[in-house]
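User: Last request for today: this protein with flavin-adenine dinucleotide, please.
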Amino acid sequence: MYEWSEEHLAVALAVRRFVDEEIRPVLDDLEFGDLPPYGILRKLFATFGMDQLAREGFKRQLERRAAADAGASEPRRDGGGAGFTLIPVIELCRVSPGLVTSLGVSTGLAGGTIMKLGTPEQMERFGLDLLTLDKVGAWAITEPDSGSDALGGMRTTARRDGDEYVLNGQKTWITNGPYADTIICYAKLDDGSGIDPRHRPVVTFILSSDMEGLVRSKPMRKMGQHASPTGELFFADVRVGRDRLLGGSEAPAGGGRASAKDNFVTERAGVAAMSLGIIEECLRLSVDYAKSRMLWGRPISEFQLIQLKLARMEVARVNTQNLVFSHLERSAAGSTPTLAEASAMKLYAAQAAFDVANDAIQLFGGNGYVSEYRVEQLARDARVLQIYAGTDEIQVVAIAKDLLSR
Ligand SMILES: Cc1cc2nc3c(=O)[nH]c(=O)nc-3n(C[C@H](O)[C@H](O)[C@H](O)COP(=O)(O)OP(=O)(O)OC[C@H]3O[C@@H](n4cnc5c(N)ncnc54)[C@H](O)[C@@H]3O)c2cc1C
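Assistant: Here's the final one, the structure of the complex with flavin-adenine dinucleotide:
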């Protein structure tokens, strides 16, 4: 059975100290003052040597890729290291899930995609700076007319023109979009053939924000996760060289569709860890509040309806922790979840996080509705977990499709 080790718990404690000293004092600026998250995240990296670890991990990834290209790859086992990646996720999510969204998209989705599918030259040129957070990354698939139907309904096009491609279109709700230096962008190949646009190949590019014709919007106003800037990207005749084609080919390892789907698994597993942080913090705050809030001459913790809320929160915490632990155990053994398993994990955990945060608001009464007590922020932040990385309904579709195909 997986358990946090002494080392894991020591790291969690150290990250919690960082959160108390560096993040809590500026939480209102992140929430209401438009403070971008990148300075704090870079300080986190520097404090815990995560930038150095990223550089060392980068070298190992390059070697693994070279071995794989030479046909000598072995099943990947993480040796228990994934837990050390998830602990900062859980700890940061107790106070600011938006920080994790920005970090995860930049290093995990943008950096991770380049490290998995990029050429060695692209890994050096674009990947390393994303892994160390020296540069900010975005991962852009969603468009105004194609959210859940991201691949089929995609309208952004890439037209071949000599040795280059000409990119036109628009992306929306892109995490880090307003500040991104490097953008993984998916587009439909417009090769002049009569193929129905829905079925055209999807090609993937690595773009830089200073390319002519590429415009980033300002951060959008939204319900929660204010610590994570979200924006639009516009492409007007952006000329892209073949050197920016991910993997140097229009169809690296199964093509753009396969690359996008591969990321769906990574994102969905990450959301379970985010949910655990939100649930643990709401439960902690709720227990403390229930014991200290006096009504009718006694603490509200003595009322059974309050106890029911706390018990339900604990059930959600145990279940979500078990999902995260089972994911870590399998990662250590070199096994990855199927899309349906990752979807089931995300569906449960995201709903549990919002339900727990919402119950916490109720338990706090009027105090739950004001920012000072923070549970309203965690509920607003948790809400998007049921929308991004595939909505609840899309997770249901993925699970049902798998069950019915057996
Ligand atoms: C804060 C935030 C950050 C984001 N970050 C990124 C990012 O970095 N990169 C990126 O590419 N995208 C990002 N997104 C976009 C996100 O992935 C989409 O919002 C999400 O996939 C849903 O798409 P949509 O909003 O267009 O909803 P729609 O697809 O329009 O869905 C509307 C409703 O219809 C339901 N629905 C759709 N299809 C079905 C079906 N087959 N059966 C039943 N119900 C269905 C949906 O579940 C939903 O309830 C982000 C979104 C937000 C809010």
